[in-house]
Amino acid sequence: MSTQDEDFMLEDEEDNSGHLQPPYSSLSSAMVTSPTTDTLDSVVLESSPFDDFGKDGDTGLDESVDLGPSELAGGIEINIGKRAGFDLETTTDTEQSREDKANISSYFADSGDDFFDSLGAAKDDNQLGNDLFTSIAISKSEEDIFASEMNAIEIKESDVIGVGASQDGLNNEGMRRINSFIRKSNEEEKRETLDNVDQFVEIAAAATESLSKDLKDQGFVNESSEFTEIEPENVTRIHLREHAASICEPETIAFEGEGERGASDQADLQIADIEEEEIEEFSQNDERPGFLSQLSQSQQLHHQVPGVLSPPVDSSARLHGPVVGTTPSQLSPVGTPIHLGDGDCQDVPALSPSIPPIIPPAFETQSSISGSPFCQPSQEMKSGSVFAPFGSTGPADDAFTSILSMSDADRRHDAWIPSDATSHILKTIATSPAGTYITPIEQLSTPGVLTFEPQSDPVRELVLRYMGEQEAIKRSVLTADSVTQDIDGLKKLIEAGCLHAAIDLTGVLLEQVGQGYGKCGQVIVHTLHSLQLWFCRLALMVKLRMYEQAEAEMRAFQTLDTPDLYFQFYANTYPGRRGSMVSFSMRLLHAELPLLCGRSQETLDRLYYMLAVCNRIKLNLSSDLSEDGSATHMTYEARKVSLELWSKRETDIMYKIGSTMLSVKDYEGALIIYNSLLEKEQNTRLELLAGIGRIHLQMGNITEATRIMKEVEEATKTDGSLSCYNLISRGLVAMCGSNFFDAYQHFKSAVQMKPHNTCAVNNMAVCSLYLGRLKDALNTLEQLVHSDPANTLHEGVLFNLCTLYELETSRALHKKQAILDLVSKHKGDGFPVGCLKMT
Amino acid sequence: MRLTKPTIMPHHPLVTESRDLCGDLISRLNDAEISRTPGLGAFPLGNLLTLPQNFGNIFLGETFSSYISVHNDSSQLCKEITLKADLQTGSQRLSLSSIGTQPIPELQPDHSIDDVIHHEVKELGTHILVCAVSYMLTSGERMQFRKFFKFQVLKPLDVKTKFYNAESDEVYLEAQIQNITPGPIYMEHVSLDPSQQYTSAELNAKDGKEGSHPVFGTLDCLSPSDTRQYLYCLTPRPEIYSDTRLLKGVTNIGKLDIVWKTSMGERGRLQTSQLQRVAPGYGDIRLTVESVPDTVALESSFDLVCKITNCCERTMDLTLVLQNVTSSPGLLWSGVSGRQLGKLPHNESLDIPLSLISVIPGLQTISGLRLTDNFLKRTYEHDEIAQVFVVSVDT
């Protein structure tokens, strides 16, 4: 080390463009610039967390892993094993729920199962020799069977506290009381009515409530010490008997889940023609960000409970959500707890204090319905316009207008099912005299442009920095000012690839509709036009990887479920139109944003919510209703087109779910999604199959990838146009097996077949490097880039080229400038300059 | 530059519909993207390969590959270039260069000497790649320089093992393999290479309709910090029974051999050291069950054959006493108690046929066998010898 020479540091840096990245970033944000100051030395790697084994690892030598069996004799091992077992179980359930996309209700039921499973898992950890606890578990299952629609959270709370108490070994008054209640429930199990259970839970909860204070004092310390005391016992048992596995076997409550799933399936079958006898809604005020609804059916009482939809709540919505006391309330996306009555608006029960009282509807609901020729079986989905009095037109006219003014295509594309809370507000608005119902502002979407400064042109900045003002002036690209200030101008900018300028222009256009800079938080009237502008703006931001900004501006839209984003809210402007003003694409974008900001789980929640709505719409369509569940007359053709559209949208969502899972390297989940798509998408089956093969490659399963690629190849034997792609696939497989020479040959053949396939050329160059032929690689890429700059200046290709420059010479900057020059001449301001690694 | 496997560039298309404002334009932008899958715009993995973006992590058992390029940036001709690439680890120094020690006669301006080196990493901790280049200017002046690249080798897997000794001399090995890398790994191959004393059988597959398949599901992929348990059954080879010492004390069981792949088939392989187990001591007398039915009918008698081995150094004179103990009321001994078994020399064994009657249905444990050594007046109690399932057969 003493001879290390400063002169050569520069080359050090270039040889190693490496820097430590968070594990997922390579997928989520394709090309991250690597600061040139990175050297191997600067790579901060975490030290090995388990040094105690002194592991040395060697295939040939015997010095490798020193495993300490003595350490393993402790009870903790068993415990770990058990936990792992449970984890496995829970994941399987999640898998199932993913597969269960065919119907909403079973999805919801499944997520409920997860919750129960995990509860069961938690119990079993503490369960050893704890009779008291077991009895709680049993009584719980009874409750579930008898009263499946009972509020889940209440049961859980009482159980959990009960478990904690028993585990702490407290023998105090409250515990005994619980115990006695449990016994009572055991005795009465057959005769117990719903009310009894209800009462029981309430009393039990009250009893445990009094315990919770004590628990806090003794709390976790006790808990953990209890753990260590229990575990050795477990170990000895295992040593004594070979049946130890059966001891460890979880006595989980799997049967509950199955029972409930079965019940909900039935509910699902009947969901289309449910007459609401009784609506009961329960929701959980807990941390679960997922679907807050339960759909279940009590088999004994034959209660049919319609599903409750509410989008996943994001943080901003939660801020608004008023905290409600003990009454079961629904945490809706707008944070409005609403307890729906019999489906009759007039029976709206007392609302939470944060909501102004709703003025009773102007029309007698029943009478107007009977007068309407379009009698709708589902009151909940009743068309709002029927009752909305506007201007001189009478209600009878409106019924016709509503049908006429709403074209087939509009209805088809705009259809969306609002959450129950939102649909309730919409219904209230529709049934109130115009202008009398004022929606609270926190339940409205109040977007505004957040950045005032115009977007700069990053390409120009680089040119200015490295090539001087002269060159920078020469660069001629469109800006927001150089086009007409309207949609045409916007289109021109996007066509020219000037996406930054296009964002600026959307800002200007939004200013025109009163949603410009600083308008965030102000109540404004949304129009189709303004929302489309927003979509365009946000989509462009995502395209330019301005994720944080996009998310900040998207935040005002909350969960895209506020009442003012539906046509029904603007009965005057859009008479008779129903559905979502927000386009489906914008919803997808909204769902995808959290992932791009590093919160993949939130994205999955939103996507699965969309999938659930999508499935509901498809179900409505196939059961002779309109998309949103209202009764309507549709021709066979219209219905078919509509089904096709929504099937396509469903597929879009599925692809997004798959790619989200892939982003977080959840290969198993992604493969399940894509394999299920294989069935659906017969037209693109082979392409998708090859894609699945690539997922296997990325994962490292070369055997399976080889098999899949072979299958694709067999199937496309006759189609010569695809053989180029097969060759590329072969090349990829060979490369993953470290047969770089074979890979090179495959890519080369592909290039010979299609000389303009940029991908193949690029891959060939990449392989050259692994064969030690840097010069070849450079020549290939340079030729590619210079031959057709307009089409081949792609960030991936340029990233490779610049990486090679850095490897080749310490004068890489000069060579990069030549590339920058090309980019400046051919590309708009939306070009991702990060790939040049010049900043 | 470290040559990890290239990656496939991910593609995140914006989904638009033709009704959207500029929807067509944006979808045209997507179509122009060459990293997308042809014909399948929404799929996130295309065919475009990108070079490694950074050094990344390197783990024990993986192969370190690096590209070494000596490029003549000057306008002068260089002569007699030698390139040495050594890897300095905590304990040794390895020469990795594949270019011979013979100097390369000359290097033209703007030309380069290229080499790709590979090394399978066998040590944890700091590694330093030392590249030394010496060359001669046209003036005949000898020049040289060295460069250092440092990297840390991390541990990818955490392996814990546990032994279960069965009465039948079989040993069950439970190995917990935990992925402690930050990314998922694909377990290509996990096997146990038994030592000479044992044969091993894998217990990680279950029989299904389509033949046997692993218990780990369809995908052999281990997510970060996930643990997977492998179970092996080791049976002593018959020939070592002749020397019972081999079954006592510390014995070598074998080694675990693990091969895994990470992103794009980056391969890693590790083998554990010899796993050792301490065989349980059997005391003076070892009692094993030679034969016992697993299911018996209620209120019927059944036979049990036990084998008694004298494991101590002296000869024993044994008396067999059968007690019906309260801890297992479901089975009653049938036959003579207090039987003299005679002398049993060191290391010899004796089969004793016994008979029991079942009186309570369910899983019953055989207990209450007492052996008394008449020389020392010492009684050996054997409880929980075996279990039988008693069923009622009246239907």
TrEMBL record, chain A:
Q: Which Pfam families match?
A: TPR_19
Q: Where is the composition biased (Polar residues)?
A: 23-40
Q: Source organism's superkingdom?
A: Eukaryota
Recorded hits in InterPro entries, A to Z, give: TPR-like_helical_dom_sf
- Residue ranges annotated as compositionally biased, kind Acidic residues, are 1-15
Any one cellular-component term (Gene Ontology): TRAPP complex
Region spans: Disordered = 1-40
Which Gene3D superfamilies does this one have?
Answer: Tetratricopeptide repeat domain
Under which name does UniProt file this protein? Trafficking protein particle complex subunit 12
Q: Which organism is it from?
A: Candidula unifasciata
TrEMBL record, chain B:
The record's annotation in InterPro entries points to: TRAPPC13 (IPR010378), TRAPPC13_C (IPR055428), TRAPPC13_M (IPR055429), TRAPPC13_N (IPR055427)
Q: What are the record's GO terms for cellular component?
A: TRAPPIII protein complex
Q: Where is the signal peptide?
A: none
Pinpoint the Trafficking protein particle complex subunit 13 C-terminal domain residues: 293-390
The chain positions of domain Trafficking protein particle complex subunit 13 middle read: 157-280
The domain of life is Eukaryota
Boundaries of every Trafficking protein particle complex subunit 13 N-terminal domain copy: 1-153
- What PANTHER family does the record tag this protein with? TRAFFICKING PROTEIN PARTICLE COMPLEX SUBUNIT 13
Q: Which family does it belong to?
A: Belongs to the TRAPPC13 family.
Q: What protein am I looking at?
A: Trafficking protein particle complex subunit 13
